UniProtKB/TrEMBL annotation:
Primary location recorded for the protein, binned into one broad class: membrane
GO molecular function, one term: ATP binding
Family: Belongs to the protein kinase superfamily.
Residue ranges, annotated region (Disordered): 337-360
Record's GO cellular component terms: membrane
Cellular localization per UniProt: Membrane
Keyword Thylakoid tagged: no
Membrane topology: Single-pass membrane protein
Keyword annotations from UniProtKB, A to Z: ATP-binding, Glycoprotein, Kinase, Lectin, Membrane, Nucleotide-binding, Phosphoprotein, Receptor, Repeat, Serine/threonine-protein kinase, Signal, Transferase, Transmembrane, Transmembrane helix
UniProt biased composition (Low complexity): 337-352
InterPro entries: CR_Ser/Thr_kinase, Kinase-like_dom_sf, Prot_kinase_dom, Protein_kinase_ATP_BS, Ser/Thr_kinase_AS
Identification of the protein by name: Protein kinase-like domain, Concanavalin A-like lectin/glucanase domain protein
Domain Protein kinase residues, every copy: 43-318
Length: 379
């Protein structure tokens, strides 16, 4: 159960023109903007390690020598101090071995900054799926550990904490690896720091529309099943070592989900297992994982399993029943039909505010995001 352990006081001090409110968030350090400037050589381009929809990330070294990832939230997150603190208190209270821990924060003037521990084995998009050199050998043992760990972290967010959290942005760049390859999910809870219509922006910037469940992308209908869809895509990426979309491949192979579905129907799934995986691989198990990926990406949200069932399937505690498998939800197909249909009036707005028939989703909690089709077609 998540508890609020934050205490906000009145304005406590005004130092160097900086308005500092009394910010006492348990388990978290409050940094000054100056501390973080020093840690990152004044946010130098050399310290910058990435940029996503929520802002820029810098690698920094704090005064005590610890290495951190410093996330400077973009202007769209201009929340009041109190709202910001309320949200990050929720995030900081959530601690589980497969979730990145938030160490501290900075809130000064317009700055809203989060400080995380730096994970030196990087994110899966840079290592496993990256085009550059990677010194990590992703054996099957390591990949299995990553799949199960991510499933565990997501099951925790979905089913163990109250109120549960829908991540909304499960993708390879949000899976970080620690020294012993324990995966850690990052950026959970961040969507709450932004207005809902902007939370899709990260997918535009990172070009990651391939992770978006069709019902979420098109109608803005957000349930846990949207995360489960994204997890399914990630699972396929981990087993095959291929990004969900690769424009350099022949047209029929560009979309990973489409390709997996095709080879599944032909009974040739094993052809997709990453050849870099090494000798020590259990092909039956890898194919089972690909089938779980297909179950998670079923077009109908209700047909996707819950994360706790996914975990049982990954662990071998539950059979993977694929007899009822039907077509996966392929956003690119829907997009091309819809784009062609709507190319002159592609501004049909979202279903924001509409009731969703929860029986269709197999999930009683639904929140909404604003989304227009124009936004989608530009991703
Ligand atoms: N705690 C961290 N440790 C190491 N690298 C990180 C950490 N957080 C983020 N990164 C890196 O910074 C990059 C940008 O992160 P982010 O702003 O969350 O964008 P996105 O997840 O959309 O790629 C990520 O791809 C990741 O490689
Ligand atoms: Mg991220």
């Amino acid at each position: 159960m998540t508890k609020f352990s934050c205490c906000f006081g009145k304005v406590a001090s005004r130092k160097g023109g900086v308005h500092r409110e009394l910010l006492d968030v348990e388990n978290m350090r409050l940094y000054t903007y100056k501390d973080l400037q020093i840690a990152t050589q004044y946010f130098s381009p050399e310290s910058k390690i990435g940029e996503g929809g929520f802002g820029s990330v810098y690698k920094g070294t704090l005064k005590d020598g610890s290495v951190v990832a410093i996330k400077v939230l973009s202007d769209e997150s201009r929340q009041g101090v109190r709202e910001f603190l309320t949200e990050i208190t929720v995030i900081s209270d959530i601690q589980q071995e497969n979730l990145v821990k938030l160490h501290g924060y900075c809130v000064e003037e317009d700055h809203r900054i989060l400080v995380y521990g730096f994970l030196k084995n990087g994110s899966l998009d840079q290592t496993l799926l990256g085009s550059g050199h990677c010194s990590i050998k992703f054996t099957w043992e390591i990949r299995r550990k990553i799949c199960i760990g991510v499933a565990k972290g997501l099951a925790y967010l979905h089913e163990e904490i109250q109120p549960h959290i829908i991540h909304r942005d499960i993708k390879a760049s949000n899976i970080l690896l620690d020294e012993d390859f324990t995966p850690k999910i990052s950026d959970f809870g961040l969507a709450k720091l932004f207005p809902s219509h902007l939370t899709h922006v990260s997918t535009r910037i990172a070009g990651t529309q391939g992770y978006l469940a069709p019902e979420y992308a098109i109608r803005g209908q957000l349930t846990r099943k949207a995360d489960i869809y994204s997890f399914g895509i990630l699972l396929l990426e981990i087993v095959t070592g291929r990004p969900n979309q690769n424009r350099r491949l022949p047209v029929e192979e560009q979309y990973l989900l489409e390709r997996v579905w095709q080879l599944y129907r032909e009974g040739n799934l094993e052809l997709l297992v990453d050849t870099r995986i090494g000798e020590d691989v259990d092909i039956d198990e890898t194919c089972r994982y690909l089938k779980i990926g297909l179950l998670c990406t079923q077009s109908l949200p209700k047909s996707r399993p819950s994360m706790s069932d996914v975990m049982k399937m990954l662990n071998g505690e539950m059979d993977v029943t694929d007899t009822d498998l039907s077509d996966p939800g392929l956003l690119n197909e829907l997009m091309s039909t819809k784009t062609t249909k709507n190319n002159t009036s592609a501004t049909s707005s979202s279903a924001s505010g509409k009731q969703v028939d929860s029986s269709m989703y197999g999930d009683t909690t639904t929140s909404y995001a604003n989304m227009s089709f124009t936004t989608i077609t530009y991703r």
